[in-house]
Amino acid sequence: MSTELDFSLIKMYFHTSPEGADHPILEMRSDQFLDADIAKQTFLEAGKLVQAIGLELPASFAGTSFGNLCAIQLLMFAQYHIILDLSLPNLMFQVEAHDDHAHLGYRIIELRTIPAPVEGQEAWLAASLERFVRETVTPAVCAIAQAAGVKPQMIWQQYGSLLAYVRDYVRDHIPVPAMVESFEVGYRVITEQVPPDAFGVRRNPFVHTPRYIDSPYTPDGKLMMNSSCCMYDKRENGVKCYTCPMLTPDQRESMRVEMCAKTEAQTI
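Now predict its structure.
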């Protein structure tokens, strides 16, 4: 079955697949995130690609990539009723330059699938996701935060909107009701049945109520606000994202007007 898995969506949005990036300019075995010296040096190298002025931005990107891996597990369960072996030793962390930014993702070293049982799938998924969080995600996030000198909460707080955005995408763009329904099962499991202590925090970071703001790109369109700052302004001449919750209403409105003006100018 493993040879039949479709990674096109996951590769497009999460830059993760058995093939990996076409032209990675930085690679590291993912279990090396647990080595503070190696991780810090990797952040310094990756930071140069996005003109980072410190370690916050590369650590933020690396940390949230493990939230992406959780989303990948839910997508694979929804489509194939499996989860993948995405353990740290089975992942190669990759950075690929793309125009004025960089993509972070993973090459899966050996594609191994774990099929769900016929009976008791929800309980099996809850146990599998909890184990994945405890053994892979939490150790990596905590090690990344320590190496960068930031608090793990800086990373965890971004997970809410990360997964909520994937949920919206599945609902709006996947024309397969059974897959949408299975994703909802996975979303409910990871938000309600994986205990907070698996993440080492008091509140499951995937529990989140999305907020939406006016889109500057399309009339009457909406964009989901981030659940926390992604640190993208921590770069040379950096500014906060339009969807950053740290913006004041006046700052966001000013950005919206400016972005709308640029969009209109491009259509003339």
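The first strand starts at residue 16 and ends at 17.
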